[in-house]
Amino acid sequence: MAKIILASHGELARGMLNSVNMIVGDLASDVEIFCLYPGQNPNDYAQILKERFQKDSEHYILVCDIKGGSVYNALVQTCIYGNVDVLSGMNMNLVLELILANNSGNLDLNQILNNAKCGITIQNKESLNQEIEEEDF
Q: CA–CA separation, 18 vs 69, rounded Å?
């Protein structure tokens, strides 16, 4: 099993873990969070993680809020270690897929990302009408 860390600007990581706990309960008990607040430097946290990862052979998956953001840019530096993967675009689909797959022992990150992307949809009057038309055939 991998160690999962949710990382974000502000309280997103904390809120995400809170919401995920409502759905999967104890399956998320080992998930850690990092919330970046004004005046903090994400590179300081990245340095702490580098020291941790250097000493540990456990697999780590860091899930960041946005690709190219300061949190992501700092944490992607930890990929120099072979036991670290950094994902971006944190959302509930991604985090739930990751936790469930991690606990089942079926941790295929590419599949997890694809499944999470499929959970991003748009629904409006036009799409509902199209679904109704397709059901008529």
A: 23
